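Data card: per-record layout.
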Amino acid sequence: MTKIISNKSNVDLDYPVVRPSLDLDFTQEELDPRITFSRGSIGTRVNRNRLIETVAANQPRFDYDPVTGECKGLLIEESRINSLLYSQDFSNASWIISGLSFSYNNVIGLDGTTTASTFTAISTNTLNAIYQNFTCTASTTYTFSFYVKLGTLPVSSYKIAVYNNTALSFIAADVVPTQTLSSNSWTRVSYTFTTPVGCVSARVYPYRNDNRTQNNGTFYLWGAQLETGSFPTSYIPTSASTVTRSAELAEMTGTNFSSWYNQTEGTFVFDGTLPFITNDTVGRVPYGVSNGFNFSNSMYVAKTSTSLALSFSIINNNVAQTTGTSLPNMTSSRFKVASAVADKNIYSCGYGGTVNKHSRPSAAIPTVNRLTLGREPWNGSALNPIIGHITRFTYYPRALKPNQLQYLTQ
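The structure for this 410-residue chain is written out next.
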């Protein structure tokens, strides 16, 4: 019997020994020098100490799970704007506070400094609330998020709201967060809403409760964010103005690409994360190879818009060589997929499941010269990034067999 060499262990799989010619393990917090990486602004990440820290422009973000402490890999996100001012400084007049006593910057926040604030709900007041107004666009989806930790306030008493200033009516009132709140740790609460027709001004409440009998106890706030989109992205700190986090770009071209790529046959293996939601209206592309920024000669994995379906596609001279339905639907945000390509034989597998084969008498592999990680390979403006993590990307310069694809995606 013979074996392949993988990131797991050597295993007999009835094939000559094949070593990957490219093996990018982003959990090691290292960026291969052959990768060109850019992001035109600062960004934030969760570091190995489970704290949120700022990362300088054009530097990669190796992100950690704040609960498990596990390194998720290289974080790739699209451009987003935090439209709330003074995201950590609730003492600023941008935040309107009613019926609450408070102490500012007296609790350690998610960045490890005393930038979080304490609030006490008072049962003798009719309304306890904190909110900030913002200018909005009508019929647009926004996601509001912030970090909260409970003191003596009961979980059942914590409610949030969104108000339409234009029509003087609530978009959402008395909303109980779906996230599990705790007195021992910070929880990021997020709420997605769509502004009504004609709405040009609104307000978001990280806390609002007008039930007098429930208003009694302390809680802590840090890191408020409002962004256009159907789910929250990494925290963007602000002060006197809104802040834009730029999109990220990671790619290999020229000899940095040709040094490991085989134009005749090969196998791609991707391990990473994508937003595990069905209301994302964008097709996310975890990786792709192309001839310059040319869609007509490309190979890529994609998550379809508005669903959790994954596909591997090959385009040669503007002719589809696959049906684009060769991978299973996502079953969680973390996924592993592998695709082996050779003339007239294209295999794909995900989650260690069924291997699908695309057979066409005319199937051909396009000539390519660029690897793009975390977004579409045929567009130079960083469109449709994954908003997720690349844990590991591996390329074998041979078309591996179906049982090997199953093994590598388990």
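Known properties of this structure: The chain has a mean pLDDT of 91. Residues 82-245 form a domain with the Jelly Rolls fold (CATH 2.60.120.260).

See the next section for split statistics.
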